[in-house]
Write a structure and sequence with these properties.
By secondary structure, this protein is of the alpha+beta class. The chain contains three helices and three strands, in the order H-E-E-E-H-H. A three-stranded antiparallel β-sheet has the order 1-2-3, with helices on one face. The chain is elongated and about 70 Å long. Keywords: Signal.
Length: 102
């Protein structure tokens, strides 16, 4: 009887934690920067939604400084726009235009 109550308690706790993780993990998506050691000034920035589907991709002919907070904020703003439109968009040079303004 004690084992059955213990098993049920553990099952309920695991179930409630998994539900909480799903709600907490429902972020707005993420971005990834791909680069190559041989061509450091050629970067590909990809934006994905929360379902891991590619929503936007751009190849930038400049070095992207990830340590700069303004660059991170710019990438996050573009991510929000791209995720909210809910479809794939062709290369519009959004990142290149924004980085040129700075």
């Amino acid at each position: 009887m004690k084992k059955m109550i213990l098993v049920m308690a553990v099952t309920v706790m695991a179930f409630t934690q998994s539900i909480a993780q799903n709600k907490a993990d429902s972020t707005q998506g993420y971005w990834v920067i791909e680069s190559n050691v041989k061509t450091p000034k050629l970067n590909t920035v990809k934006f994905y939604n929360d379902n891991n589907h590619l929503v936007y991709q751009e190849t930038v002919n400049a070095k992207i400084k990830l340590s700069d907070k303004r660059v991170q904020k710019a990438l996050n703003k573009i991510l929000m726009v791209m995720v909210n439109q809910r479809r794939y968009t062709a290369d519009q040079e959004l990142i290149s235009i924004y980085l040129a303004k700075q």
